[in-house]
Amino acid sequence: MTTTDKVMIFDTTLRDGEQSAGIGLTTAEKLDIARQLDRLGVDIIEAGFAASSPGDFQAVRAIAAEVRRPIIASLARCVPGDIDAAWEALKDAERPRIHVFISSSDVHIMELLRKNPEEVMEQAVASVERAKGYCDDIEFSPMDATRTDLDYLYKLVESSIDAGATTVNIPDTVGYAVPKEFAERIRNIRQNVPNIGQAALSVHCHNDLGNAAPNSIAAVMEGARQVEGCINGLGERAGNASLEEVIMTIETRKDLLGVHTDIDTTQIYRTSRLVSDITGFPVQPNKAIVGANAFRHASGIHQDGVLKQRATFEIMEPQAVGWPSSALVLGKLSGRAGLRARLEELGFQLTPDQLNEAFDAFKDLADRKREVADADLEALMADQRRARSEPSIYNLDHVQVSCGSHEIPTATVVITGPDGSVTDAATGTGPVDAVYQAINRVIEVPNKLTEFRVDAVTEGIDAIGDVTIRIDRNGQSYVGRGSDTDIIVASAKAYMNALNRLLIMERAHADA
Ligand code: KIV
Ligand code: ZN
To answer: Is residue 182 assigned to a domain?
Structure first.
């Protein structure tokens, strides 16, 4: 049996990743992520689960229409309505893929589907055939494959390929497998499914026991040639295999694995930052590849070693994953060319208009902050991206607060909305509460604040404050972010961001 040495990277940040509790993305945000995944060079983008909600349908359709290089996939259960919806959303794609799945383990078949294995087999075959009526590229996933009886799994995989599946994906849906065992299952499938050579073999591992990336790599060593996962390891429960970990393991251990991907690894850092910024899910500092400490050496012995020869304690170059190469700081006197060069180095490609906007914001920041570091520029660009890609219904024109040890915190806001400009004021338990109460008086959308976090993006008293909040309404959670050297202003921006996203998403639902 022959295999190629290319491992296809299937990104499901916009589908399984969006299933993470607390993430909800607008179509514009999904498009921003999809464009960056395209720059990263992923082979397949699973843009959503078209039948699951009107918002998902709209996002799959928008990505399929715009992002032309990678394959664009939509997930579908093995039911006609889902498959038809997937195709409807995908039909403008340059390279569409319908990804059908059905449960295959006894516990899922009996307790979840309340069916018998023969019925599931028939439903799987009929669904692959139906999908094949729409397009050639069909992926089939037997859900909970790692807890599925092996003989039944062989038969199901074989039948799905006979019915037209071009990729067969083996999900470790509940993150139960360990690497040696998972590798054996992949080997067994390759040895016992007679037509397996007619389809690409894929894996999709969850991280419940922390084995998602190691299981994926173990499968690659046994001939799997597609790996599914999410940026920053997002996904249901403990998440999916972290794609940056899988990609950099393949890249760094070429000697052992003998395979490659077509990923532009220098886009990894940028992609991770963008996904974290848009989802509001921070990256833990000690996270492999993209955590703030991933390339920092703290102990004296390590620092000494790295200064003498990097290879003593570094197995990858930070630049290989796109970490900014210098800590050059810009300031008040820096010009447009200097700013552009620095932003390009950080991975931002700007149009002339975007550069003008960025330059104005940079000058404004440099007036308030003596040194503008890379992290400041990233926060500034995130603010600009939000303003650009998330059409606001309401804009905050002005915020003013009075507070102190003997004062009742009072805030005044000026907000422009569909009915023009409105000024209002309110008191609160503290300055941020007063601002939020004042905003609530203008934008009357009852909600519950469930998370409020302030991070300083650099050190020092003049650091930019990056505020992340989460608000809940009708069981749905919406993230909001804002940054400014004034944390009250940053908090106000974050709340406006969350409210605008909530209104846009609720409207998209109502219109569908
Ligand atoms: O984890 C899983 O089994 C899935 C499938 C739908 C592929 O996400
Ligand atoms: Zn999954």
So the answer is: yes
The model's confidence at residue 3, banded by pLDDT at 50, 70 and 90, is low
- Please give all residues whose CB falls under 5 A of ion ligand 2, grouped by chain where several chains appear: 16
Return the residue whose CA atom lies nearest to atom 8 of ligand 1.
16
Q: Is the pLDDT of residue 197 over 80?
A: yes
> What letter represents residue 310's amino acid?
R
Q: Give the H or E element holding residue 365.
A: helix 352-368
Ligand 1 pocket, mutate which of 18, 77, 101, 153 (most atoms under 8 A from CB): 101
Atom number in ligand 1 closest to CA 141: 7
Ligand 1 pocket at CB < 6 A: 16, 75, 101, 141, 143, 171, 173, 204, 206
d(CA 201, CA 157): 10
Total residues belonging to the chain? 512
pLDDT at 162: 98
What's the whole-number average pLDDT of the chain? 94
CATH code where residue 490 lies: 3.30.160.270
Residue 252 inside a domain? The answer is yes
Distance from residue 256's CA to the centre of ligand 1 (Å)? 29
Pairing between β-strand 44-48 and β-strand 8-11 as defined by DSSP bridges: parallel
Residue 264 CB: number of other CB atoms within 10 A?
13
Q: How many domains does the chain have?
A: 4
In a domain, 286, yes or no: no
The domain of 301 spans: 296-323
Residues 97 and 14 in one domain: yes
Ligand 1 atom closest to residue 145's alpha carbon, by position in its atom list: 3
Q: Please check whether residues 404 and 460 belong to one and the same domain.
A: yes
What is the rounded (10 degree) CA torsion for 287, 32, 97, 191? -10
CA of 6 from ligand 1 middle (Å) equals 23
Residue 228 lies in a domain: yes
What pLDDT, on the 0 to 100 scale, is given for residue 501? 93
Distance CA 40, CA 278 (A): 17
The Cα 35–Cα 41 span in angstroms is: 10
